[in-house]
RNA sequence: GGCCCCAUCGUCUAGCCAGGUCCAGGACACCAGGUUUUCAUCCUGGUAACGCGGGUUCAAAUCCCGCUGGGGUCACCA
């Protein structure tokens, strides 16, 4: 008989910052696992660390997940996304800080059954013991020495209000984790110690909270990063002590930078600090600071500013930092579909062939939600290859319809590039779409493709080499064609890409020259450079008046 | 350092569990050619890997052992 129990997975971030890209992959795969098995995906906020948790981080994480399209069936609700969150089975609340009674009930039960006990060593005492262990190059373990003090005494002291922690009495048998990805992993009892399940401040530790919540929320499958593998025997010990079922576990390989370093926020902070401090700027971009003082000003800021403001300063100075958080990728112009696709493929292979026999690599959320299985997970760590991600993103952009591209581009610009959104409205972007789509890997790249239109007509800087090649070389034949075309274009009434292209072609034929002979002088005259999108879009986006003004200005200078 | 996990092109990976069809397939990147009014796209072709050493076997990328290398963990963080 098959177990009719619904598959329940969960993602349980702690709200101590933005959603990290590694966390996003965990969330994505948990989501996919639940969907592929017709189950539910639960979002829970692990805010038991009172000093580091914040409301704004929590919101940020929820918004990042919503942007990625990872929707949760149960969990906190997010304004403006009525379909997200809720508590269909009445298993909430979904904030650990609101579940203290639940944890305490279970902790009390463990103590009364003799499976856990209050302990009274001070943090200083334990630190000293830990330092000693490190000095002697052995692993630190809590010494259960005082356990002969009767449990009744301990409970009495605890109930009298003495400061204490609660520790779980670990079993003296080996514990085996049956991991869906790694296989069986057995840890010997000699590796265990009586770890803390409730802190001095009355909050449970992660270990206790996660076990109680997963059990009470009916979580059947836990997918998480491999850094948790070593915690799992502890969790199993708590489950056994409490009489809970052990869910199925799968520990996913970790993701690293190409150089093998950790992909951590800390590294971004460090790099921001260093880059800002070492930034060489000829002239100060800040009015109140003189050019000469700018270097010292930066050094000073590096010392004073917290990391998030340093990152803002780096952005202001045009220093590019590696994308680490989901929000960084959004800002950099990635599409959620491409990011999800790449993320899912990092460490997972769908083991499906395309029609031509090559491996399937491009798939969407629907595919993931119906095909994901831990069987395709690799065991080894992998490196995050931004170049390949960018290629995926370029493919995803190219695959968008013109309408969808324009919408995405406009939405992105409205959020991250105001000047661009002011220069081009949605219709302009729609017109540019066919030209821009194949020329950018990210939405942010779009700016450079149409950069020529962002400059005033009389501020175009001409590339000398391009001008010479297209307009001057060969008895100024190029210039002559350009001027002739300028006159032809004045009478064009519909100044949109197709008629413009047609006119260019027609005029070139009438002058008995190849397209290139006319196109390059024209391109250089209106953009200043030998490279631009096709002439139809290039001229149309400028508008007739601007095109003529640019041609005239260019011709005058020759 | 103890314990635990891992190891195929530069990178992500297929193949490994059920050894031969693998002088190892795909993707990104790179190189060369083609299409194209420039650029980009697109198309064709190419370079490039089983970490090392032992076994087992008629036969090993595939099974076993050791070494080396990478990673995780050793908190009153999660």
Summarize the structure.
The protein is mostly helical and 558 residues long. 49% of the residues lie in helices and 8% in strands. It has helices at residues 21-36, 55-68, 100-112, 123-135, 151-159, 206-216, 232-242, 265-278, 294-304, 307-316, 326-331, 336-345, 365-371, 386-399, 402-416, 418-423, 426-437, 446-449, 464-490, 497-510, 515-527, 535-542, 544-556, and strands spanning 8-11, 40-43, 116-119, 165-168, 175-179, 183-187, 196-198, 221-225, 248-252, 255-256, 382-383.
Question: Would you write up a description of this structure?
Answer:
The protein is mainly α and 558 residues long. The longest helix has 27 residues, at 464-490. It is elongated. Helix content is 49%, strand content 8%. The protein binds one RNA strand of 78 nucleotides through α4, β6, α6, β11 and α14.
Key terms:
single chain, 558 residues, mainly alpha, three-stranded antiparallel beta sheet, two-stranded parallel ribbon, 11 strands, 8% strand, elongated, RNA-binding
Estimated share of beta-strand residues: 5-15%
Count of runs of 4 or more consecutive helical residues: 23
Shape: elongated
Overall average pLDDT:
91
Biggest sheet: strands side by side, in what order? 3-4-7
Biggest sheet architecture:
3 strands, antiparallel
Compute the separation of the termini in Å.
87 Å
Portion of residues within helices: 40-55%
Low-confidence stretches: none
Radius of gyration: 31 Å
Would you count the extended β strands for me? Answer: 11
Based on helices, strands and strand pairing, what is the structural class? mainly alpha
The oligomeric status of these chains comes to: single chain
